[in-house]
């Protein structure tokens, strides 16, 4: 019996080995796929019931969880003293029992819920205390004063405004209007939450679009001329004082149509403006012919160096901006003016501006500054500045900076002049379809000699000015206020 | 002999070790209970001291009784049983708190535990020697059959979760199969020790393996018919597998013949496959197992995979370290406190916690087998094997079902699951293992029973010795044990034990059945 007993013992051990195996299989090997199984309703409920970490702006909570006495245990709330939830909704998104999560609630969800691997040591600690791991706090790079300036400036107009610290890539402001309130969508009353969700998504002006980084994107209009100028300087064939062809009207090859300037008549210097002058007065004809001379490939390449065509996560997803392909000369001419099928996000234009401001070194935009332990506020993860690319040489960047200063000193962007601070800027007034009021654009940075902030603003369909709108008059003051919020600190 | 200085290391009782482990087990169980209160209600349960005191009292009573009546019993069995029982209590309380309506099921489980411990204490006190059970071999077999058939009686039997393995009187319900498994282990042990010689006799050789004679197939056929009957009429694969597995394992230990295992497994597989084809409820279980994660099976009601899959989701939610007690959502799984308590524990204690629980069961099994190996009598060896194997097999069937290793069945997780019959039965098993292990590890000179008198005429003398309660013979027996005539006793049961071995091996029943 001794031998057969040993055999039975082995059989028993094998059975237990199988159980250890199957338990590991469920809880370790396939745990992620089970957790993410579409049939699994538990994960959502679990996360809802968790003490989710707050989203912080300059130490204040813009989104946070408050204990309540119902089955979800915590109520998600948005906004606090001095922080308007509507002004931040395009960043925070919502966290809902019916609609899941959007915005940063989704993009940084693993941190907020405490699921992230970066929080491992916290989780080990809570293993001993028996406590549910608490979500981490996510601190944004946003400067509330700049954000407020953007929000106030856009006001009741639809549009977006982005401010970036050129040296670090920190996003100082990111506003999208119309704003919306995430609070009703986070209601624990499923019917109320559902109704609020549907109202947001069916609203006329699409408030759910984050116009700063997504939505339908905009033709960048004349702000794109900065990029064409960059391509020209980078080609080595042009200098800021190179003479261009800027007549009152430019005949487009292969067609009967023409391109004209926004102001009547030929451009400076009797229709032979320099590259710098062309930018200063936003000469259409000279940039159209410059674009055709440079060729599609050169502009396309320059656009891609600035980030066109690339998806980006900041960690919100930024829609890729695009420069069209396979263009015939008239299309190329129009595209060189940021018209035709050129499409851009304000984030892209702000990033480009920041890249020029930072001497040709373009930093990766980041919206999350730090992840903190929600109790102790000790940092768990800090986002260091990351260089994204070098779209232009230092020399080109300096030349572009000087040229953009000229736009403010002696050009279309004089509205952005600040006492004692040099400002570099470019305006844009983007046509987009017959009869539609143009989108008003403004990109700028300041101080030009030591940049602290780069800004891109777009006001949809001319905003309150409608057909009378110009980038300088409608978007310019908003950009100026945002820059001042940084510079005058 | 006791004066012999050359005596190899005398077995030690290890009672203090048991006490230490027991205090640890009670501390863990009480902490778990307190953490459940903290987790669910943010406050330690008000009655935590009464709870701890109650648990400690139960543990200490059984500890003292073991010290008094079974001094050499295995020291880890009681602490492990208390630990598992305590974890089960905490989880039952936790699931109860998660309900919309509190049912006080933790308290009723604690009462069942008290009953179970009382029965165990009774067994240790009044069952002086496990070999006495051998005289009830056929009574046990008959009683087991009755218990197994009880759920089939109309009006008495109850169908829970598709399986008809329950009986109910009024609001009380009971799983008679839990008691039947102990009775069956006694029956198999007694039967096999008497008839194994016949079963060992060689028959025809097929494919190089010698099979038994056809006429000796009787017992295995009966066991097979009974287990397939359970599968078909009581609709429970788990119970069926448990009894048949128990039988085959004990048969193999008794005969050492691989052919029995092959035959047994072959029979069972054939029966199970046939049942799968013939009966829709078995098909449902198998399909709910194979295609568990499809929306079709998940949403099928009744008989779909909802429960299984919810259990898997709970466990995966727990992950490696669990959500913490009171922090998960075990209540989403139907029967979270009984059939699926393993998944509930997995969710809140994580894989780490489940590994500890599995290790506890593995310990019980390993100690049981070790006891069987140390024993000097065939009946005890078989009984210890059967009892410990039934726990291992039951854990395998339940946990395998919950973790989707095998199709789901309606068995309970020993010591953990809510349910009186299961708890009582498992405490009885622990008591029997304690009693047997005491016998296995006790040094010869400390035997107080008249068992030694079986040297002359085993069966009758055992009985008469017990009836007389005559302890005076013991001394004579011990003294006589150094002498030749007693040395061959019991030896026939143990392959490696020859007459020339140390006299300490000579105790126990004789192998002289022939």
UniProtKB/TrEMBL annotation, chain A:
InterPro entries: Beta-lactam/transpept (IPR050515), Beta-lactam/transpept-like (IPR012338), PBPA_dimer (IPR054120), PCN-bd_Tpept (IPR001460). Residues 159-484 form the Penicillin-binding protein transpeptidase domain. GO terms for molecular function: penicillin binding; peptidoglycan L,D-transpeptidase activity. Pfam families: PBP_dimer_2, Transpeptidase. Residues 52-138 form the Penicillin binding protein A dimerisation domain. SUPFAM superfamilies: beta-lactamase/transpeptidase-like. Gene3D superfamilies: DD-peptidase/beta-lactamase superfamily, Penicillin-binding protein 2a (Domain 2). GO terms for biological process: cell wall organization. PANTHER family: PENICILLIN-BINDING PROTEIN 4B (PTHR30627:SF24), PEPTIDOGLYCAN D,D-TRANSPEPTIDASE (PTHR30627). This is Cell elongation-specific peptidoglycan D,D-transpeptidase. It comes from Brevibacterium sandarakinum.
From TrEMBL, chain B:
The chain crosses the membrane at residues 16-36, 48-68, 75-95, 107-128, 135-153, 173-193, 214-231, 237-254, 261-282, 349-369, 381-403, 415-434. It holds the Pfam family FTSW_RODA_SPOVE. The keyword Metal-binding does not apply. GO terms for cellular component: cell division site; plasma membrane. InterPro entries: FtsW/RodA (IPR001182). It is found in: Membrane. It is a multi-pass membrane protein. It comes from the Bacteria. Residues 458-479 have a biased composition (Basic and acidic residues). Its main location: membrane. Residues 458-514 are annotated as: Disordered. One of its GO terms (molecular function) is lipid-linked peptidoglycan transporter activity. Keywords: Cell cycle, Cell division, Cell shape, Membrane, Transmembrane, Transmembrane helix. This is Cell division protein FtsW, lipid II flippase. It comes from Brevibacterium sandarakinum.
């Amino acid at each position: 019996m001794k031998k057969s007993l040993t055999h039975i013992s082995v059989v028993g051990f094998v059975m237990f080995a199988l159980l250890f195996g199957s338990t590991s299989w469920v809880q370790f090997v396939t745990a992620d796929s089970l957790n993410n199984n579409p049939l699994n309703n538990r994960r959502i409920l679990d996360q809802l019931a968790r003490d989710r970490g707050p989203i912080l702006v300059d130490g204040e909570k813009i989104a946070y969880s408050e204990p309540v006495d119902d089955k979800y245990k915590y109520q998600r709330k948005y906004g606090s003293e001095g922080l308007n939830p509507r002004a931040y909704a395009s960043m925070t998104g919502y966290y809902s029992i019916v609609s899941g999560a959007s915005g940063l609630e989704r993009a940084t969800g693993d941190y907020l819920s405490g699921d992230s691997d970066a929080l491992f040591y916290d989780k080990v600690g809570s293993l001993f205390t028996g406590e549910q791991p608490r979500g981490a706090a996510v601190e944004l790079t946003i400067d509330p004063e700049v954000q407020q300036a953007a929000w106030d400036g856009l006001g009741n107009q639809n549009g977006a405004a982005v401010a970036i610290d050129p040296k670090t890539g920190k996003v100082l402001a990111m506003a999208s209007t119309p704003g919306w309130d995430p609070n009703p969508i986070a209601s624990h009353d499923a019917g109320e939450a559902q109704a609020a969700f549907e109202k947001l998504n069916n609203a006329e002006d699409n408030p759910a679009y984050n116009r700063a980084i997504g939505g339908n994107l905009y033709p960048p209009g004349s702000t794109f001329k900065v990029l064409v100028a960059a391509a020209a300087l980078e080609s080595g064939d042009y200098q800021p004082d190179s003479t261009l062809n800027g007549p009152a009207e430019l005949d487009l090859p292969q067609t009967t149509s023409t391109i004209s300037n926004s102001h009547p008549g030929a451009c400076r210097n009797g229709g032979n403006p320099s590259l710098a002058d062309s930018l200063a007065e936003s000469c259409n004809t000279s940039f159209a012919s410059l674009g055709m001379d440079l060729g599609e490939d050169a502009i396309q390449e320059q656009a891609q160096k600035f980030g066109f065509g690339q998806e980006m996560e900041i960690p919100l997803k930024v829609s890729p901006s695009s420069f069209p392909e396979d263009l015939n000369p008239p299309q190329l001419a129009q595209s060189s003016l940021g018209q035709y099928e050129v499409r851009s996000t304000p984030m892209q234009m702000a990033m480009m501006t920041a890249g020029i401001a930072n001497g040709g070194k373009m930093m990766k935009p980041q919206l999350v500054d730090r992840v903190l332990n929600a109790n102790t506020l000790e940092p768990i993860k800090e986002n260091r500045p990351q260089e994204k690319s070098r779209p232009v040489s230092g020399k080109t960047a300096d030349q572009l900076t000087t040229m953009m200063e000229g736009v403010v000193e002696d050009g279309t962007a004089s509205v952005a002049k600040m006492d004692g601070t040099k400002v570099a800027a470019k305006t844009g007034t983007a046509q987009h379809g017959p009869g539609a009021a143009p989108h008003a654009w403004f990109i700028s940075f300041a101080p030009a000699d030591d940049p602290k902030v780069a800004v891109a603003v777009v006001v949809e369909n001319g905003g309150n000015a409608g057909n009378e709108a110009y980038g300088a008059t409608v978007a310019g003051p908003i950009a100026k206020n945002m820059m001042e919020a940084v510079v005058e600190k | 002999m006791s004066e012999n200085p050359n005596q190899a290391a005398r077995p030690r009782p290890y009672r203090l070790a048991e006490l230490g482990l027991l205090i640890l087990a009670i501390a863990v169980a009480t902490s778990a209970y307190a953490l459940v209160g903290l987790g669910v209600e943010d406050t330690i349960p008000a009655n935590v001291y009464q709870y701890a005191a109650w648990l400690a009292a139960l543990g200490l009573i059984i500890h003292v009784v073991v010290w008094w009546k079974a001094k050499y019993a295995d020291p880890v069995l009681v602490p492990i049983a208390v630990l598992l029982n305590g974890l089960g209590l905490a989880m039952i309380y936790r699931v109860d708190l998660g309900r919309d309506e509190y049912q006080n099921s933790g308290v009723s489980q604690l009462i069942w535990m008290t009953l179970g411990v009382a029965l165990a204490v009774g067994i240790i006190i009044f069952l002086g020697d496990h070999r006495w059970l051998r005289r009830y071999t056929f009574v046990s077999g008959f009683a087991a059959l009755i218990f197994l058939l009880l759920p089939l009686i109309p009006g008495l039997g109850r169908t829970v979760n598709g399986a008809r393995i329950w009986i109910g009187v009024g609001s009380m319900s009971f799983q008679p199969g839990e008691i039947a498994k102990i009775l069956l282990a006694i029956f198999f042990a007694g039967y096999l020790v008497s008839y194994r010689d016949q079963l060992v006799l060689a028959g025809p050789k097929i494919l190089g393996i010698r099979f038994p004679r056809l006429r000796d197939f009787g017992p295995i056929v009966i066991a097979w018919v009974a287990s397939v009957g359970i599968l078909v009429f009581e609709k429970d694969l788990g119970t069926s597998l448990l009894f048949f597995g128990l039988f085959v394992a004990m048969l193999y230990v008794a005969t050492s013949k691989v052919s029995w295992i092959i035959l047994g497994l072959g029979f069972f597989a054939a029966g199970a496959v046939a049942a799968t084809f013939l009966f829709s409820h078995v098909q449902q279980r198998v399909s709910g197992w194979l295609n568990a994660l499809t929306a079709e099976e998940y949403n099928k009601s009744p008989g779909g995979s909802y429960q299984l899959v919810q259990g898997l989701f709970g466990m995966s939610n727990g992950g490696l370290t669990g959500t913490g007690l009171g922090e998960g959502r075990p209540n989403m799984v139907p029967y979270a406190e009984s059939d699926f308590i393993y998944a509930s524990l997995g969710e809140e204690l994580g894989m780490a916690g489940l590994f500890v629980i599995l290790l506890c069961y593995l310990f019980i099994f390993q100690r049981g087998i070790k006891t069987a190996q140390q024993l000097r009598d065939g009946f005890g060896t078989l009984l210890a094997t059967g009892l410990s194997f039934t726990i291992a097999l039951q854990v395998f069937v339940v946990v395998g079902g919950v973790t989707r290793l095998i199709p789901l069945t309606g068995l309970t997780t020993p010591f953990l699951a809510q349910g009186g019959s299961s708890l009582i039965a498992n405490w009885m098993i622990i008591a029997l293992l304690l009693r047997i292990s005491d016998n296995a590890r006790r040094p010869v000179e400390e035997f107080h029973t008249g068992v030694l008198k079986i040297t002359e005429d085993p069966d009758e003398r055992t009985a008469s010795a017990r009836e007389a309660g005559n302890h005076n013979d013991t001394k004579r027996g011990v003294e006589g044990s150094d002498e030749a005539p007693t040395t061959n006793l019991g030896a026939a049961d143990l392959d490696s034990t020859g007459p020339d071995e140390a006299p300490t091996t000579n105790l126990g029943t004789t192998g002289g059945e022939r």
